[in-house]
Amino acid sequence: MAPRLSFTIPVLNEQEVLPHLFSALLELRGKLDQWKCEFIFVNDGSHDLSANLLDQFAQSHEGVTIVHFSRNFGQQAAYSAGLSLACGDAVIMMDADLQDDPEQVLLLLAEFERGFDVVYGIRESREAGWLINVAYTLFYRILKTVSTIEIPADTGDFCVMSSRVAKQIAELPEVHRYLRGMRAWVGFRQKGVPLPRAARKAGVTKYSLRKLFRLALDGVFSFSLWPLRVSFLLGMSVMTLAGLFLCINLLMWCLTDIVPSGYTTTIGFLILLSGLQFLLLGVIGEYIGRIFQQVKGRPVYVVARVVGGTLQKKLDWQESN
Length: 321
Ligand code: UDP
Ligand code: MG
What we know:
The protein is built from eleven helices and eight strands. The chain has helices spanning 18-31, 50-60, 75-85, 104-112, 130-146, 163-171, 179-186, 209-223, 226-255, 263-296, 310-320; strands spanning 4-11, 36-43, 64-69, 90-93, 118-126, 155-162, 190-197, 303-307. Helix content is 53%, strand content 17%. Helix 3 (75-85) packs across helix 6 and helix 6 (163-171) packs across helix 7 (179-186).
């Protein structure tokens, strides 16, 4: 029996790009005749024509499944849904806007077939403004330094992974899902392949700066205790400095007639220290907020309806194993 290959693709308001994507995927399927392909599109609460386009595509083609979320839950939630429904021996994660070039899937699969569990794209170049590029580069370097596990720099979600990795990731109970970190955490044999990253084929980015920032925070706070350690170190340094300052003042008071004055210094220190305390509280608060959201145990997404047969296929597949 031919091995199965599942594509998971998150979609939010992509009506301009979907027709291009469908034809690129069909062309790719023609080149992947050794694989049995299924396409799982997760409609992450689109309010343009994406839902209709996706449903039409599912109705007119074999092996296409559309998962409609009840509202927008975010790209990482959409990928998570795709991963838990995928029943392929290999699973591809790719964005809908053709920035992850379907042709590059062939390169990823070539490496995958050499025995890797995960083959991910490393962004060689990025078609974005210089400020965004600098921010990305900085962020990935910081994350690499502070995270408790090795998260490779400049990688996106674009990858192929084995079913055992997909299953592990799908079953991780985290609500703050930073998938490229979770993928690294799972382990097994992983390999990065440098790939140029094209500009989006049509439409505009669905990642506002706020969403990007939140994703970046998820990366840092889900994979590092470093902010807490820095807070501790900062607290220790300030206390040491304050101690020294007090000693010097005391000595001056005992040994000389110079009475230390310093209204400005006092106010300055007060403001500095209260600012520092708020900052540290903010860092602790960030962790507590995450614990709060985690213990509530709400699901990562809510599915409104599924069009196409993956669920059934998955049951059949489980029964036959
Ligand atoms: N996306 C999603 N939900 C969101 C934001 C984005 O499903 O809340 C999808 C989007 O449709 C696309 C992919 O995630 O397929 C990546 O988004 P985008 O290309 O807008 O991000 P960028 O590449 O600009 O970072
Ligand atoms: Mg994009």
